[in-house]
Specification:
alpha/beta; nine-stranded mixed β-sheet; 16 strands
Length: 394
Amino acid sequence: MYKAKGIEIWLEATEHHIELKSSGPLSLPCAPIIRHVNSMLQNEKPIEVKDDSVILTTWLPPIPSGPFRRALKAEIDILLRRKYVPQAVSINAFKRCSCRCAHCNMVQSPDEEFTTGELKDFIDQVIGLGAISIGFAEGDPLLREDLIELVEHVEGEKAIASIFTPGILLTEEKAAELKSAGLYAAIVGLRSPIPAEHDAARGVKGAFEKATQSMKNAVKAGLYVSMHTHANPSLIESGKLGGLYDLATQLGVHELTVWEGIPTWGYMSNEGMMLNETHRKHILDMYRRVNSTLGGPRMFSMTFFESPNLFGCMAGRRWLNLVDSGDLTPCTYMPISFGNIREERVKDIWGRMRKFPEFKCKRSCLMLDPEFRSKYIKKIPKSETLPIHIEKLD
């Protein structure tokens, strides 16, 4: 899987057990990385085990692969050199969408949409910095006429390409076309297992039926497919999170992704959508139960993945997000800009972001941290155009 001077890393895998092992003089100092990855693999249910690779989740590259080797190298650099690279890059730079969601993160900037050339240049820059995952996200990337061309531009030996979509437009033909272009995964958002509730959240009649059909289309095309939801207290307390998993099983998708509800952008004061520790325990219990049970989709949990015991908050450490104004923010949820790609190179903006003291230590999601929200988020004036530049908050 990975070989460099002083260390060799390989994977031992069966249908029921996956484990990284290493040898060489650097094995001891690199042991924390191996333990980190193995703690994630322990009792996990992979999507697929092939003769030559393992697909653990829609969120990570195949093991082994060029992108996964780059990910291991990045983790070794973090351990030995304290050097972080933007491994996960989301492009939330699409102005058009088929939905009218109540909790939309789209930035309605007055600028023109990015050209194909501008987005290709951005992709080249972040892959050059070490990105292993490029996600085309909000609004709906399927409304971009050049989406196929952009997916094809992601170098498969270096990074995987995914789309995040409400699933209104993912036809059988489009899914097959995206698969041929090299798309790795399709992540389709669903707010509720009850059709009327999902339609109301999307602001589009029939959105539920179209989203579920889109997932079927993506599975048929051979894409890895995740049903994605943001869990708020009512979703958990009503038992509807379990209903979403049951629906994912019926649809034959590979994964249920559960992200915590995060008040952000135009809804920063709506902290009622945030989970408490009882809710988080429910998610983690479900996560362990699902991933230790044979059959059915696996589950990806932000609550587990971004815990301090594993990777911690990804924002500004392993994650970088582009919005349609050209601003780079630390993640999809944090409405703070550290620079604009129409004015500077990504490398320079990332360097500035890495100097921000809040990104120095490993903690759970900063946007859910009361101290961070009081220090930065709650100081943003309601009249401010988002994202706000970090200099205005210092």
